[in-house]
Design a protein that fits this description.
CATH superfamily of the largest domain in chain A: MetI-like
CATH topology of one domain in chain B: D-Maltodextrin-Binding Protein, domain 2
Strand content of chain A: under 5%
Order of helices and strands of chain A: HHEEHHHHHHHHHHHH
Order of helices and strands of chain B: HHEHEHEHHEEEEHHEHHHEHEEHHHHEHH
Largest sheet of chain B: 4 strands, mixed
Largest sheet of chain A: 2 strands, antiparallel
Strand order of the largest sheet of chain A: 1-2
Number of helices of chain B: 18
Oligomer: heterodimer
Distance between the termini of chain A: 50 Å
Strand content of chain B: 5-15%
Radius of gyration of chain B: 24 Å
Helix content of chain A: over 70%
CATH topology of the largest domain in chain A: MetI-like fold
Number of strands of chain B: 12
Number of domains of chain A: 2
CATH architecture of the largest domain in chain A: Orthogonal Bundle
CATH class of one domain in chain B: Alpha Beta
CATH architecture of one domain in chain B: 3-Layer(aba) Sandwich
Chain lengths: 305, 460
């Protein structure tokens, strides 16, 4: 009798599991697709990169384990310190310039009464350009001779600058390109956040006599605090990987003034054929970025709670 | 389609795709290619091999010539099947390693001279020494050209083109500036004077252009110091040797032209395509380069053959050799290598045939007459090639006469070990001199020397 009851119970449990699986089959299918994508295009390359940083390989024979040799090689490289300093400086400058500009643009767009859709499109337009095209456009803007920027400076009787050709202006020139290219995305995200702020808050602030700047400071900023923080962290993670601007505009020069970690990584892997060195640099950069990513996850979790 | 079916289909498709990707390597193992390419080691057993750098579809005339040569070769050798892969450009550093890693590299792959020693040192090319007795023309190829593909006594590749570096100049601008295009500069002092006159033509005109970014600056520093009789590294390859009077002269010459003469334009950090574009636009007077520059400017940068000339590198005591060739995948079987060598000889090494079939090129309307290939020097093959090149010339050969005559007496020199790393270091010195008026040349060379010594110490 007891045996029959146990068997019946097992049968019921198996049936429930089967029903559960059948009911969620669609979800499992989509989940599998996503997992396979992530596994092959994100996790597998990350694991390979991690292993590469401890190996010497020619991709023909079996790789040789070399311990920390690749790390020693890249740390001893004369371009290693400038690469990290430039990357940090680029990130810092990109925050000062590139972080504030989209927020201000979003506030202005939000306050506009006319031509809102048109201006939103105009602001987002640079994002639609392929990055290489946008960067090469700036190569002409920055030309010290007939370039657009020096023509404008000349028009207002100011001396022309060397832009990319000077160690003092090359990095900030890259920041300007990067800011222009990414302005649209940031602006749209901020705009969405601004539009979710209840209009009653602004009305109440106005009744209390708050002017434009007070309304921004006491209503807009607190209400968008979380999105501002998340965007800050995402921007740090993105800008620390800066590559295409130095690759296309300056080749890391002049005098290593724009060599970045990602650019040096490229040099090791593809110019020097030293994938181990490139992998070591990539791993170092990944660890730094993981810190910011962890903060981002923490912030996101706090938001959910 | 129902969401459930869509999800299952998506997951199954991705899984199959991923499995397909993972398995792509297996077909390229020596065992696999051996069984596909050559069932038995016999000389007449069927064998197939893949080869890169077939002219691209965008270049239909050259592609058709290649196809015709393949058909003729296969008719002569019915047991050999050639699997041609077209590509433009023929080699991309970003995909080279990926193709090797993914088992997609051709059995015979294309290389520039710049990469050859790096590939040999990395063990990424097969040693073809045991199979060279089948290449009858090899004994007449210039020893200095063959040395590009050698490491010790072993040979790892076959040259396709070879040239020494000279000075490319715009004949039209020379005339406009009151200079004689038939008497190009022979000394650096004459180059300076000519550059000043060309720059004086007006805004936007650049007398002399030079690279300084993306490792190209270091490359041209090497060309210049070799020309002045200097060395990049010590004979044993263990220390830097460019912090020398010759190295200093290279940078001082550039500094004078850039800041005293103002003949090098304001825009610097130039790379390969920048100078090509400037040359093609007709605003650049002179640059270091070989006849292949004229070909590239004509084909891809809207220049015209007749507007350009090439002369020997001024005051040259030696010349960095440039060119390209083929190497073999280490996974290729001996039969594939032998078949590949047979094809390379047929297509690239035989006078009157393949790339040297100038009569056909003339009939097809392709440019003939550029001295882009000097594989044999004064050997009978070389003499025959030069005769036919002149006989069927379609470009003004006189424009390249100073180069041909001058280069004949200038010995070739190879690139230094760890070339790309050294070039990257010297980019700094080149960019400093061209972008900073107060650049301290002694300090720049001394800093670069320390860095290069560090690189060489690690590699030895």
């Amino acid at each position: 009798m007891t045996t029959m009851t146990v068997k019946g119970s097992r049968r019921r449990t198996t049936g429930a599991v089967r029903r559960g699986v059948r009911r969620n089959l669609t979800a499992y299918g989509f989940l599998c697709a996503a997992l396979i994508c992530f596994a092959f295009f994100s996790w597998y390359p990350m694991v390979r990169e991690f292993l590469l940083s401890f190996q010497k390989t020619n991709f023909v024979g079996p790789p040789e384990w070399v311990g920390l040799d690749n790390f020693r090689t890249v740390i001893d490289d004369s371009a290693f310190a400038p690469a990290w300093i430039n990357t940090a400086a680029f990130t810092g400058l990109a925050l000062i310039v590139g972080y504030a500009v989209p927020f201000v643009a979003a506030i202005v767009l939000n306050e506009l009464r006319h031509a809102k859709a048109y201006l939103r499109f105009v602001v987002y337009l640079p994002v639609m350009l392929p990055p290489a095209v946008a960067v090469l456009l700036f190569k002409w803007f920055y030309d010290p001779g007939p370039g657009l920027f020096n023509q404008i400076l000349g028009f207002v009787h100011l001396p022309g600058l060397s832009w990319l050709d000077s160690t003092s202006t090359a990095l900030i020139s890259l920041v300007i390109v990067s800011t222009w290219m990414n302005l649209g995305t940031g602006t749209l995200i901020y705009l969405a956040a601004l539009q979710s702020i209840p209009s009653e808050l602004y009305e109440a602030a106005e009744l209390d006599g708050a002017g434009l700047f007070k309304r921004i400071w006491h209503v807009t900023v607190p209400q968008t605090k979380l999105i501002l923080l998340v965007m800050l962290l995402l921007q740090i993670v993105a800008t620390m990987q800066v590559f295409i601007e130095p690759y296309l505009l300056t080749g890391g020069g002049p005098e290593n003034a724009t060599v970045t970690v990602a650019y040096l990584m490229y040099q090791y892997a593809f110019s020097f054929g030293n994938f181990g060195g490139g992998g070591a640099l990539g791993l170092m950069l990944m660890i730094v970025l993981m810190v910011f990513s962890a903060i981002y996850l923490r912030v996101s979790r706090d938001d959910k709670n | 389609m129902k969401p459930r079916n869509l999800a299952i289909l998506l997951a199954a498709g991705l899984a199959l795709g991923a499995a397909g990707c993972g398995g792509s390597d297996s077909g390229s193992t020596p065992e696999a290619t051996s069984s596909q390419g050559s069932a038995a080691p016999s000389g007449d057993a069927p064998v197939s091999f893949s080869i890169g750098c077939k002219p691209p579809k965008s270049n239909p005339k050259e592609a058709a010539q290649w196809d015709a040569d393949v058909a003729a070769f296969q008719k002569l050798n019915p047991n050999i099947t050639i699997d041609s892969k077209d590509a433009f450009p023929c080699i991309v550093p970003e995909t080279f390693q990926a193709k090797l890693a993914g088992g997609e590299m051709e059995d015979a792959f294309y290389v520039y001279y710049t990469d050859v020693q790096k590939i040999i040192a990395s063990g990424q090319a097969a040693d073809i020494t045991p199979y060279l007795d089948t290449v009858s023309t090899l004994k007449d190829i210039r020893p200095d050209v063959m040395s590009v593909f050698k490491s010790g006594d072993k040979v790892y590749g076959i040259p396709r083109t070879n040239y020494g570096t000279g000075l490319v100049y715009n004949r039209k601008l020379f005339t406009q500036a009151g200079l004689d295009p038939d008497a190009p500069p022979k000394t650096w002092t004459e180059v300076q004077a000519a550059a000043k006159k060309i720059a004086a033509l007006g805004p936007g005109y650049v007398g002399y252009g030079e690279y300084s970014a993306g490792n190209t600056g270091g490359w041209h520093f090497t060309v210049s110091i070799y020309g002045r009789g200097g060395e990049m590294v010590s004979p044993d390859g263990k220390t830097a040797a460019f912090n020398s009077p010759e190295g200093k002269a290279v940078l001082e010459n550039l500094k004078t032209m850039r800041w005293t003469d103002n003949s090098m334009g304001t825009k610097q950090l130039l790379r390969w395509e920048d100078l090509m574009r400037m040359m093609g636009s007709g605003k650049l007077g002179m640059m270091i380069g070989a006849p292949d520059v004229v070909q590239a400017v004509n084909n891809d940068f809207k220049g015209k053959f007749e507007d350009y000339g090439v002369t020997a590198l001024p005051e040259a005591k030696a010349s960095l050799s440039g060119g390209d060739g083929y190497m073999f995948n280490p996974k290729a079987t001996p039969e594939q290598i032998k078949a590949g060598l047979k094809w390379l000889e047929y297509r690239f090494l035989t006078p009157g045939q393949g790339q040297f079939n100038y009569e056909r090129s003339k009939t097809d309307g392709l440019p003939v007459g550029l001295p882009t290939t000097d594989l044999y020097g004064s050997a009978p093959e070389g003499v025959k090639i030069n005769e036919q090149r002149t006989q069927f010339a379609t470009v003004p050969v006189d424009h390249f006469k100073p180069y041909v005559e001058g280069a004949a007496n200038i010995p070739f020199k190879l690139e230094p070990p760890k070339a790309q790393e050294i070039y990257a270091v010297l980019d700094t010195a080149m960019s400093a001199v061209l972008t900073r008026q107060d650049a301290n040349i002694d300090q720049l060379l001394s800093d670069a020397e320390k860095k290069v010594n560090n690189i060489l110490a690690k590699s030895s």
